[in-house]
Design goal:
heterodimer; A: mainly alpha; 75% helix; globular; B: mainly alpha
């Protein structure tokens, strides 16, 4: 054993570990992710009697499609999905558009006032929203229980995150393009729309993913603002699972979970690489 | 300048005003049972403090947040180190660990409620009958583990990205200087992960202090309210029409986050600068 060339052993692994690592990985995935997902699948495929005490055994007969259909029917999944879309889509578009407009100015004009405004704008990343008094405020504005109120609340909560991400990104792109457009006589609106916004695509993709993830899955804020008036998917799941209708009907609860998770899983499957690079790019600088 | 108007209008109306209201209505007797709202001074605080709710909820929330931050980072870091190489198996494994991140936290809670029932899947597998979600001492740890399980994939991604930013020549230099693999890792690569650690610890703390779904779906705050984090208390009292009490707790959460998060972020940032 005479070291001839300094190899890159600093990063490479010992041979034993090399052989062991795939085994450890496989076992870990099966135990920590496989078991819970397996439980969802087999329970969602069981009959009512079998699913009373949910376990990991295979169903004697597969009722998966039947259960999915039943949930789709009386769980009012379609109505809840429309409710979810009605709230999620405008919230995400609004928060991204308004957030990047503000971020553009905040990043380009380094006045002392802007520094203060920026600090205020991103304080929402850390500070928790005042969830009880927002209901009172919406009542006074006549927006209580409405989709508009909910959209406003979501935009208020995630505006800080968007401004933070986009401002950081704008600072890394050169100003020359904008200046050229300005010299050609383009109005600020046109410069923003035709020059800046297209450049922001990568960071907007990241922000879209994060905001969608939070808003699509949110139940806490939705409960306060639109609970009982408008249904979203998580709110509906919460209602049916905690009310008498599905009590101990684990097969239906998990059939609902499958239906509800499908959209995000499909989106993820399609744009997996983008999502992964998107999530990580903003965090580590 | 008017480009900033919509964003700040939204922030003002839907974020800052309600926060300001928090500081007002926490000192009133606002409730669902009567229309008049009168100031009552510190009564809400003294009530909540005297029946022990205030300090129990605070303690539970802080314990929960610290546990989640610990577990989530330990799991995420371990996974990142395990799956660092870009082999196909590791890529597939990373995708699997991201599935819980995408799932609704409520769904995650229900899954684990079913899995951890006394007669549920896990006990069946282990051949015991421990009430995982019915122990007044340890259930908060179990719920924190579930929370960490849901988000560990995200921490893993951040740590993976952090590991990639460590330049190879530094690692090589350490090796040529005769450092062992173990030493190279802990003395050279680990400190360079400081930004990733800051981000992960901060988001884990914030996420768990604002947590609701997982605790609600697994235990609903029980047993004996030992997992009743602040948001569950707020949800429960709001449902009972005790709006002023819910507001008071909301204000307490606001102050807790402000008091805890800012110093933590400050300390972590300072550590980054030193390195």
């Amino acid at each position: 054993m005479t070291p001839v060339v300094p190899d890159r052993r600093g990063v490479s692994d010992a041979p034993v570990w090399r052989r062991l690592q795939p085994v450890v990985t496989f076992v870990l995935v099966v135990l920590s992710i496989g078991i819970p997902l397996w439980l969802v699948l087999v329970t969602a495929a069981k009959s009512r009697g079998e699913a009373l005490t949910p376990d990991l055994s295979l169903p004697t007969e597969w009722h998966l499609l039947e259960n999915l259909r039943q949930v789709w029917g009386d769980g009012e999944v379609l109505r809840a999905s429309l409710g979810s879309l009605l709230v999620v889509v405008p919230s995400v578009i609004g928060v991204l558009l308004f957030g990047s407009m503000a971020a553009w100015i905040l990043a380009r004009r380094a006045t002392r006032l802007n520094a203060v405004l920026y600090a205020l704008a991103i304080s929402g990343i850390v500070l928790p929203p005042a969830v009880v008094t927002v209901v009172l405020l919406l009542r006074q504005l006549g927006l209580a229980g409405s989709a508009v109120g909910m959209i406003g609340v979501y935009m208020g909560i995630y505006m800080s995150t968007v401004i933070f991400f986009v401002t950081g990104f704008v600072r890394t792109i050169p100003t020359s393009l904008e200046e050229a457009a300005q010299l050609d006589g383009a109005s600020p609106m046109r410069v923003f729309w035709l020059v800046v916004l297209p450049l922001l695509r990568p960071v907007l993709a990241t922000a879209t993913i994060l905001v969608c993830l939070y808003v699509w899955n949110d139940v806490f804020y939705a409960f306060f603002v639109i609970g009982g008036r408008l249904d979203t998917l998580p709110l509906n799941l919460f209602r049916v699972a905690s009310a008498g209708l599905y009590l101990n009907n684990w097969h239906l609860i998990f059939a609902y979970v499958i239906l509800m998770s499908l959209p995000l899983v499909v989106v993820f499957a399609v744009a997996q690489r983008k999502i992964i690079s998107g999530i990580t790019s903003g965090a580590v600088k | 300048m008017w480009f900033m108007a919509p964003a700040f209008a939204i922030l003002l109306v839907f974020f800052f005003l309600p926060t300001l209201f928090n500081f007002v209505y926490a000192f009133t007797d606002w409730s669902g049972f009567k229309s008049a709202i009168r100031p009552v001074g510190l009564d809400n605080f003294t009530d909540l403090a005297s029946n022990g709710t205030l300090f129990r909820s605070l303690r539970v929330t802080v314990v929960y947040a610290v546990l989640v931050a610990l577990f989530q980072n330990a799991f995420g870091f371990g996974l990142a180190v395990l799956l660092e190489r870009d082999t196909w198996l590791n890529r597939v494994a990373r995708v699997f660990f991201l599935i819980p991140v995408l799932m609704s936290a409520l769904a995650v809670g229900y899954i684990f409620q079913a899995l951890l029932k006394p007669t549920g899947g896990l006990n069946r597998l282990l051949g015991i009958d421990y009430a995982w979600l019915g122990d007044t001492t340890w259930t908060v740890v179990v719920v924190a583990l579930i929370h960490a399980w849901k988000w560990m994939g995200l921490s893993m991604l951040i740590y993976l990205a952090g590991l990639k930013t460590v330049p190879e020549d530094i690692v090589e230099a350490a090796h040529i200087d005769g450092a062992s693999r173990w030493r190279t890792f802990w003395a050279v690569r680990f400190p360079l992960l400081a930004p990733a650690i800051t981000f992960n610890v901060a988001t884990a703390l914030l996420g768990s202090m604002n947590g609701f779904d997982i605790a609600q779906a697994t235990t609903g705050g029980g047993p004996a309210r030992t997992t009743e984090i602040l948001n569950i208390f707020i949800y429960r009292t709001f449902g009972q029409g005790l709006f002023a009490q819910a507001t008071t707790m909301s204000l307490v959460l606001f102050l807790l986050v402000a008091l805890m998060a800012f110093p933590v972020i400050y300390v972590l940032r300072k550590r980054e600068e030193i390195l």
